[in-house]
Amino acid sequence: MILLDYHNVVIEETLNQPIVNLEPTVLDMTVVDFDGVAYHLSTPESKSVIKFSLIMQCYKELVQWGAQDMLQREYGPYCVPKEDGYDVTLEFDLQKLPEDKSQREELVKKLALIKRNLMAQPFERAFEQQAQFEDEKQPNPTPDLMQIHYRDQEAIYIQAQLDRVTVIFTTLFKEETDRIFGRVFLQEFVDARRRPAIQNAPQVLYSSKEPPLEIRHLPELQNTSENEDIGYVTFVLFPRHFAKGDVREKTISQIQLFRDYLHYHIKCSKAYMHSRMRARVQEFLKVLNRAKPEVQNVEKKTITGKTVIRS
């Protein structure tokens, strides 16, 4: 099993040379990421000025939950008017970058994490709202049901509650075999928590056809109860799962990759089953070949000693 990185490795490796080592270069490349996200790296005017553009399906929804503020906070000095056809554009003049190499390395790392950082904003907002419920000095907030339609016919719903944060994934299985494998994996998520060693893990609920109560009222889900291709996975996060610091950052990074890991495991399982079937067919062919009767060439002669040859 591979471990999916939270950051885009191609972005990091491509920008290390010009930004970290301050080596002017010619760039004009498109890099794709999970969930239909695409980046455009280019040097349209000069080898020493790099443009970094990003497009993602759910960007307008993320702006509602603080994406623009995050961009100004983390990438503010480099923000420029967006390139045509893209949602975000950053510009880096190699002659104006920090002199400290470690700062430039940190900048490249942040660029490779830009998708993760944008997707993290609704989670951060939900965690802060849940903290207000526990703070007796503050009035209870009206929690938002944050919707992120990050893929066609698939979405993430996030909502803070009195003592928890609920995260619901809708996932689409386009093939019947994917649906069968997915149901097995997701049921294992539900059953695995009964083991004593992982009882502190977030609670996971799985349902098919019928949406969870938290989102059942949404108009877009009113006519999906008969659709067997859609599954609903609910993660129930308690405060111990998103304590401030490394725990929170790791939780946000890992839960974003849930859908990618699920479909990765489905594809690996199908590939494993196909390899086992091919190996079994090869074994059957060997058995059939051994079962063929050998043709014995026996010479037959007449009474006069002549050999009889059958045509």
UniProtKB/TrEMBL annotation:
Give this protein's Gene Ontology molecular function annotations: actin filament binding; structural constituent of cytoskeleton
Asked if the record carries the keyword Nucleotidyltransferase, the reply is: no
Major location category of this protein: cytoplasm
List, alphabetically, the InterPro entries matched: ARPC2 (IPR007188), ARPC2/4 (IPR034666)
Any single Gene Ontology cellular-component annotation: Arp2/3 protein complex
GO BP = actin filament polymerization; Arp2/3 complex-mediated actin nucleation
Q: Where in the cell is it found?
A: Cytoplasm, Cytoskeleton
Q: Which UniProt keywords apply?
A: Actin-binding, Cytoplasm, Cytoskeleton
Q: Does the keyword Cytoplasm apply?
A: yes
Superkingdom of source:
Eukaryota
Question: What does this protein's UniProt record list under function?
Answer: Functions as actin-binding component of the Arp2/3 complex which is involved in regulation of actin polymerization and together with an activating nucleation-promoting factor (NPF) mediates the formation of branched actin networks.
How is this protein organized at the quaternary level? Component of the Arp2/3 complex.
What family is this protein classified in?
Belongs to the ARPC2 family.
Name listed for the protein in its UniProt record: Arp2/3 complex 34 kDa subunit
